[in-house]
Amino acid sequence: MKSSRRHYAVDRIENDLAVLLDDEGTGFAVPLSQLPLALREGMVLAIRTDRDGRPDWRTAAHDETEERWRLEDAAERLERLKGRDPDREAKR
Amino acid sequence: MLPFALLAAGFLGILPPQQSPLTLGFLDVGQGDATVIASPEGRIALVDGGRSSHDIAERLLAMGVDTVDLIVATHADADHIGGLEGVLQQLVVGAFLDNGVPHTTATYRGLLEGVEESDVTYLAATARTIALGSVTIRVLPPPPDATSQNDASVGVLVEYGDFRTLLVGDAEQEELAHFLRLGLPAVSVLEASHHGARNGVTPAWIATTAPRVVVISVGLDNTYGHPNPWALRYYGARGRPVFRTDLHGDVWISAARDGSFVVETEFTYPGDTLPRTFTAEVRR
Lengths: 92, 284
Known about the structure:
- By secondary structure, chain A is an alpha+beta fold.
- Chain A is built from 1 helix and 5 strands, in the order βββββα.
- Chain A is elongated, with a radius of gyration of 16 Å.
């Protein structure tokens, strides 16, 4: 397997650990100290993987375009789903 | 794992014969959260689904549950929603309710796709009540300006006569204050927020909810430090029983309309001071 970049989303931050999920849904608890940037929940990172597919957390870079696309895609899906709510006129 | 039908039948023998029980199962899903609610009429709700993609579906099927009337995803963290797509794929689901706050993970996207592709009824987390047979599920909406998934957790107040259970996902102190402003009654059973984390409890939260029993859904030897020792002392103050899925396995509760209930755990552990079967009589 050639080295490449893969996406990992910050599922959540628990104390000094970031829980990152790859696109297969596999989770990794990574110490914040091993990541080169300040993280927040929902951030999408592009991370280089080695020939065996292992991520090198030190190469993490924020992929804002991918993150925005994912949020917009989710927001559109939620809007469509809200149209299926039988009580959709109800206000929070 | 205790067979669900047998367990409910067993509890029927403990409770007065004229009363059918509400059964709650706080399932040991490792580090995560999944609670099954079964009404006396056999209607089923599932609040969160653990992190494993198929574990919860297979466990429900093994219990003889092939239809879930309502799924509540309290928030989009993977340790709460990871198993819900599998439930949508393998069981018949009536309705799905979530917090409506987008997330960026593949797990979340897969779940939303699963809901979209199915014909389940989508329910937004508005201040609504849902009838699950003779059990009432009161939805506590998160604050509209929540800044994290945890603080956008949907609250669920389960009411069956005088018995009440409260589940609030991973709500942290800011959201707990929000729920208190909505107005909450004292409850019989409180599920500790955020797996027993320190940020999941406040003095006002305990004083208002005044639980008789606390259940913590948490994984054995998890890497996050859950549950927090300070929070544990708080939950266990004044001898209040605290049941933990990491130490007790599945925690099952059978409740009668008069507010009495029985807690039965899958197992005990060395040094455990709680009985495997704990009975809470009617509070006078």
